[in-house]
Amino acid sequence: MVEVLKSSFEDLFPIIETCIRESSFVAFDTEFTGLTADSSNTETLFDDGPARYAKKRRDVQQFIMVQIGLSAFIEIPHENRYRVHTFNFYVYPGSFGSVNVKFLCQASALEFLCRHNFDFNKFIYDGISYLNEEQEKVLCNEIEELSVATDAECDYDEITVQEISSKISEWLATAKNEDKLVLEKPPSVSDYVLHSQLRQRFPAIWTISVDRLHVQCAKITEEKKSIILKEHEMENERVLNSMLGFTRVFRLLVKHRKPIVGHNCFMDLMLMYDKFYRPLPVKYSQFKEDISRLFPFVFDTKSMSASMRKSYKETGLFENTTLSRLYAAFQRRFDLYQPAIIHGQEGSKYREAEALHEAGYDAFMTGSVFLRIAHLKAVVHLSFAEAQPLPFSHLFSIISPDMGRLNLIRASVNDIVSKYKTFAV
User: Fold this and answer.
1) What is the DSSP string of 379-404?
2) Are 215 and 182 in contact, with CB atoms under 8 Å apart?
3) pTM for this structure?
4) pLDDT digits (tens, 9 = 90+) for 403-415
């Protein structure tokens, strides 16, 4: 398992991209800050699909993800083996300009995370940022206009920035090109706000942070300023990429169109849509259509296993369809020519011990269960003489009827048909 934090994200991003691109499928899992935002929003057995979606939509809009696990399963040709590379991401909604997310935390959800050794310091101090398309547009406009001070800062910051501006005005009255002035940096004003405001007010200067406590102003020519501005555009792009953070990984999943696999993942997909794509639409039909377009090959191992329970009642294999129980049941079972699953070099943590409810480990278990179910379905009717190692392309053809069926417990309907796929609820 590779732990991915804000401080290591840029270095690891090319590796993540390679693993997704080379994978046969990617399993995912998320941990979040709550399940139910309002007691009046409780799910009931009488919910149909649109009603359930409307309730979960209100919840998803108020909670956030804190950890995301991705496991890329890469088939090793002709060896009946899969190498799995697992990444465990801490994510946190960074603030910048007017992009300043408010979210709820549910006490029971935080207690659950504590019981499973979740590191809240990594979440807050080193969590990877993310934006949906709406937030990205707002941020791009603010960066372009060099106007990023928040409403809460404006009154106080204006006074502070004005004091610095007065000192710069006095200095500029006698300054020559290339002259420099070093001033103390006010602790109450962010670097970006300070530089943006001073550069706006004084077109003939450029500012840089000398260190944590000081800012330097230099009087420059128009020619030199044009060169600096090009460099500044690159810096703005770096700022935007930093704020996009995990959204860039989400876009890789969309771009490469790999099968993605979750366990009981209806809410996970809603969260991913809302936080990385667009605010959740009011219409359930629109959500289903968009998800089918973003992820045309999505599987839910909860739905897959529930549909097989009756056929395997005597064996008890699917008696309990919680993720950890399914994984344990398949670990005890042997099927002819079942594919081997090996961890990449970075996977020693999951080879040596369980880490239940860590998103990365749960993603790994989900992918393992998916592969075993697919293999079981493919060989169940084959004789000993007919059985042989099967490539993923064959397994995929066998399980294609399960594609797009997402489990959602305790509802009044079994299936809702979208424009593209069937979503089991």
Assistant:
1) HTT--TTT-----HHHHHHHHGGGTT
2) yes
3) 0.82
4) 999 888 775 544 4
